[in-house]
Amino acid sequence: MASIKLQHVAKHFGTKVAISDVDLDVNDGEFLVLLGPSGCGKSTLLRMLAGLETVSSGEIHLNDRRVDQLPPSARDMAFVFQSYALYPHMSVRRNIAFPLIMRQFKWWFHIPLIGGWAKRRIERSPEVADLVEKTARTLSLTEMLDRYPRTLSGGQRQRVALGRAMVRQPEVFLMDEPLSNLDAKLRTAMRAEITRLHQRVGGTFVYVTHDQVEAMTMGTRIALMRDGVVQQFGTPREIYTSPANTYVARFIGTPPMNLIEGRVEGGMIKLGEASLPMPHGLAAAAHAAGEPILLGIRPNALTLGAAGAPGQLAGQVSLAGQVSLVEHVGAESVVAVKLSHASTAHDEEGAVPGEIMITTQGYSDLEPGDQVSVVADLSEAVLFSRATGERLR
Ligand code: ATP
Hints:
By secondary structure, the chain is α+β, with helices and mostly antiparallel strands. The protein has helices at residues 42-50, 92-103, 112-124, 126-138, 154-166, 184-201, 212-218, 236-241, 246-251, and strands spanning 4-13, 16-26, 31-35, 57-62, 65-66, 77-80, 172-176, 204-209, 221-226, 229-234, 258-265, 268-271, 274-277, 292-297, 302-306, 316-329, 332-339, 355-361, 371-377, 382-385.
């Protein structure tokens, strides 16, 4: 088991800043997910942890040991690649045993005849055979030990790659998008399998993905990155309920959080023509008086009513609008509504000006063109500064 500490870690490729000044404290036994869009620097950060990339500045500590100057082999971290990186000419048994064989590497491995004989000896030694069998059992690979990678499915190959990482019993597992080559159904199954593996094997996991669902379901904590900078480091729940800024708010959740433009005036929140007392939980944002704000509200915290319906309870506001799109997604429907009086932060990626998204349970009978009232329960709302995008409470 191991804790990892990154202090002011930065990475430059020539003039390109891939990572700037990252600080992270990963606890012993934690499942940290590095999440972000393509090019945000998450693989570079993982590769620096592994020692496959040098740090330009800053320090990396494993427990109390500084490791950023050590070669990969001295770091006791196992890396699982997106491409699996299995040896095609080796059986599953030998692929899994390989890191143990290499641990006993001797110069005469290079002499083909002696090398082959020695490798077989090591592979069949009781300790190595025992560890390979144990690992194969944990990953349900026992039946496949004598098969070759080309005869395995993507999911089975992924399990062999995990086995090869596990067999060394490392302190830290580093995984770079290990599920991205699998189809959607298998991804979901492997997701649960890796989570169970983490619970069973223990150890500290650092997992790179651009998939928010993987991050939310697998991570004990998530570091959400953008342009080489960690935007927020927290539990999935913290990141979902209290996003640090509008970028985090829009990255997590499908459909993403709605951002409605407004203003704080005299202890009231004004959204277009609607105005309501500042809900209790948002009082800390009162200092933003007069400033433009964005009211962040998740699609599932909104309900739809007939046109003209008022917000019934304290802390609710009702906004008039017209349905522009309805999507039926099995157990729920996603309804897009163009607001009549309030506007939205349309400069956010994927946002349509003036439009908000609402998720409703079941099959919605609404149709484009219908006039509706959108009732927002502000107890779950978040306020952001319009100017900086930072959360105000
Ligand atoms: P992806 O999900 O697409 O793999 P990522 O978030 O893992 O993206 P990185 O691969 O870490 O991103 O890359 C971060 C930035 O650094 C990118 O702009 C990339 O082009 C750049 N970069 C990465 N490796 C190198 C390199 N060897 N030389 C120059 N630039 C690099």
